[in-house]
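hiii, so i know i said id send this last week but things got crazy w the move. better late than never?? heres the sequnce for the chain we talked about at the cafe, plus the structure i predicted for it. fair warning i was half asleep when i ran it
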Amino acid sequence: MNRQVLRNARVFDSVTGQVSAPSTIVVTDGRVDAVLHAAAQAPAGVETDLGGRIVLPGLIDCHVHVMAVHHDVWQLSMQPPTYITAQATHVLEGMLMRGFTTVRDAAGADYGVQLAIERGFLRGPRLFIAGAPLSQTGGHADIRPRGVKEFICTCAGVGLFPALADGVPEVRRAVREQLRLGANQIKIMAGGGVASPTDPIDGTQYSLEELTAICEETTAANTYAMAHAYSPRSITRAVQCGVRTIEHGNLLDDASAKMMKQHGAFLVPTLATYSVLGDEGQRLKWSDEMLAKLDRVKDAGTRAIAIAKAAGVPIAFGTDLLGTMHPQQAREWRLRADVQTPVEQLQSATSVAATVLNQTGLLGVIAPGAHADLIVVDGDPTVDISIMCEPEKNFVGIMKAGKWEKPFAL
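okay and structure toks below
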């Protein structure tokens, strides 16, 4: 038995949004065993005094691409998967050192990467994978340029390439295949996107029958569908057919937010990616068409969060960064500051995100039975969210599953 006793900890309750008086956290074999009043007698174990610092649950980013080591998917297609995975080790470790002890991969990582992390061969966050995204022909994940009929060989690539499927029988088979390959959730391209060459950003993708069939298959497998969607029309169609989480959602309006609330859907905004691309889009040689689409959605994301918040739609934390942009993950905190309070932001990356993952009580909380994923913070992020923007400076201890990934030191 491995037991640690963390004394003098002010615990952030991610459900109520409150910070406790100095308490003792007991961690046994990678799980939180108890959270005790400071005066209560704790069982014997390795003791650490946290000096009255606030302790957060490990953070959860609900929209990442850990294998996107380059912003250009065509470049990735020409690299062996072993080389991509070797490069991804830096992406994974970086996320962990920014306090993200769990991430939901929105396309790219496969079961092998997930297993390597679980068994300790790779160092990184706990990983929930979507496998290859489902896209209709000509949809957001169909990256073939105009006039190009076939993909180049993608056998060396990773799951950023889509599972192209058209019609109800094909989409059912595509869902089943991704689940067979180990997907924890299914990613659907339900509308146009910024980085795709041939689809309008406010267009809809997949018929209602196809979307419904996909969601029927995910429900049958006790999981859910996450949908890339920007426009009110694509958002409304997706949630009416059973999609659980809307990714991005920058053009959300009052009516589509009301529909999300009615169907119990979550919004996963990803403001960081638009902010960084706004800085770097031209340097990355994006086309004029792609840059125009970026301009349309870049400044709409905060408005979408405000609309969702007013409608009572739960909002989770996401970033959606690629290539050299990954280190900008903590920028998301600052970008949301005008529309979410510090506590709301912290909840979006802990208890709300855990609910998205169907991990309520296991992740995103510091409570008996939960995984011992903890962040020891200098300062009070429930008052000043900018503390979260400098994790290398302000996170003085990071624990995942009871192991200090960044050892705490007074």
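btw The two ends are 26 Å apart (CA to CA). thought thatd interest u
miss u guys!!
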